[in-house]
Amino acid sequence: MLSSLKEGGTFILEGFSKEQIHNQTGGPRDVAMLFSEEELKFDFQELSELKIWKEEIELQEGPFHNGKASVIRLIGIK
Fold this sequence. Notes:
By secondary structure, this protein is mostly beta strands. Helix content is about 10%, strand content about 40%. The protein has 1 helix and 3 strands. The chain has one helix at about 35-45, and strands at about 10-15, 50-60, 65-75. It has a 3-stranded antiparallel beta sheet. The longest helix has 7 residues, at about 35-45. The relative contact order is 0.34.
């Protein structure tokens, strides 16, 4: 993904955090497919101005993605 981003471009990611495994509101049921802050810091270390944070949100995206969810967000500059 990063190889297709131009220098100075902004990379934005949102996914389910590993804590989402305890919720029944969507996302993979395999914790290895969920994100942690440490993994994202390592995977995207080449980005500058890297910001990573987790949030508890309320999903309303249909019958399988409805209710409390734990997401992790990342913004960085190439």
